[in-house]
Amino acid sequence: MATTTLIKNGIVIDTEPEAVVLGPADVRVEGDAIAEVGPDLPVPPEAEVIDATGRIVLPGFVDTHRHTWQAGVRAVMPDTDLPGYLRRIVGELAARHRPQDVHAGNLAGALEALDAGVTTLLDWSHIQLTPDHTDAALLALRESGIRAVFGYCHGGEPSGMAGQARRVREQLPDSSGLVTMALAALGPEIAGEERALAEWRLAGELGLPVTAHLGHSPEGATAGLEFLESNGLLATPTTFVHALHYTDEQFKRIAAAGGGISLAPVDEMNLAMGYPPTGRARAAGIPAGLGADTVVCSPGDMFSLMRTVHLLERGRPDGAGLGFTTRDALLMATIEGAKVLGMADVIGSLRPGKQADLLLLRTDLLGMAAAHDPIGAVVLNADTACVDTVMVAGRVVKHGGQLLHHDLATVMENLAESAGAVVAV
């Protein structure tokens, strides 16, 4: 018999079809799914009741782009630029990671996400130095209890990519588990057209979506999009990560092809990559999600990302972003992120039948007290200290402000040991 959980008397926010405050209401969870949302729901016999009085209840956050393994190199380059990041992190420190370092980083990074209310993340994992590194990353995601899309980016010679990707696909054969798979492609702008062609064709053969860093320069954006279109590669669901330098006309073509974009607004500004094209992409009809990207030089929580994307869009010099609202920012952090990952029928809102990925935020803190607009408060005032309860697939993984199923002292001890080994000269 499925376990019943009733979340009572919360300030419930839903995000589908729009972000809306439902008012004081209850959420009934049966097993791993949302069964009913409404006021004054009856308490089923033997149900576990969570008193959400004074709590905001909303769908879990969806992070569409995170290099989770980098938790052990947090703030190692807080003021770098993109060439510096590529040289130090990708060119030097990545190669020093042993499989146990990948496990320590991925586990700590996934738990950091859960602790901050991120219930789903796309782990863009470009640390596949050996099969053992891959297995360590996967094991950590499974142990964490988070819902994850493992974005496999082959780190060796192109000749070995297909075999290793198939090996991972055998471990993640479908979408039935908490951990699923995508192909994280280096793409035409980074690795050239020949390798990109092999990446997209392999993804199509394995039935996988693609996530790739695209649109890093005006020239690269134009040439890369034309390459993908001319080869029919956008028939494979594709996430354009960053997508900084597309024109409005090019965004319309991406939308027509069914593409999505993932924005990392803190990273994009901090690394001097470009101004996030939030409003222009969404105006073209493209679902746009948010991503922490890397904690090397950015925060790892969704509150920071929502605030940043809200500020940058409304602060556009031409004034064209003033129509962007806190509700739009919350949609990007939830249902639009789910759409980007191809999971909008599974997560991202409180629609009955969807997976019960939820979080409860405290309002009895000075920074949240007397908030008149709950959605505005979530986006502009809340932070990780507000995250009281987190549920993934109906399982409570955090309650009373504490993660429940891990020895965090050991997790952080292992991370500290790993960080010292990796960064040591």
Give a written overview of the molecule:
The protein has 425 residues and is of the alpha/beta class. 37% of the residues lie in helices and 24% in strands. It has helices at 82-93, 99-115, 131-144, 161-171, 187-191, 193-206, 218-230, 248-256, 265-270, 278-283, 302-314, 326-333, 335-340, 374-380, 408-423, and strands at residues 4-14, 20-30, 33-38, 48-51, 55-59, 61-66, 118-128, 147-154, 179-185, 210-214, 238-242, 260-263, 288-290, 358-362, 387-392, 395-399, 402-403. Strands 1, 2, 3, 4, 5, 14, 15, 16 and 17 form a nine-stranded mixed β-sheet that branches. α2 (99-115) packs parallel to α3. The model has no long low-confidence stretch (mean pLDDT 96).
Radius of gyration: 21 Å
Q: What is the CATH-assigned architecture of the largest domain?
A: Alpha-Beta Barrel
Q: Give the biggest sheet.
A: 9 strands, mixed
Which CATH top level class of the largest domain fits? Alpha Beta
User: What is the typical, i.e. mean, pLDDT?
Assistant: 96
Could you estimate the helical fraction of the residues in percent?
Answer: 25-40%
Write down the domain tally: 2
Structural class: alpha/beta
Number of strands: 17
Q: Can you tell me the CATH topology of the largest domain?
A: TIM Barrel
* Alpha-carbon distance between the two ends: 55 Å
Counting H and I runs of at least 4 residues, what is the number of helices? Answer: 15
Which ranges are low-confidence, i.e. pLDDT below 50, for 5 or more consecutive residues? Answer: none
Coarse shape? globular
Percent strand equals 15-25%
CATH superfamily of the largest domain: Metal-dependent hydrolases
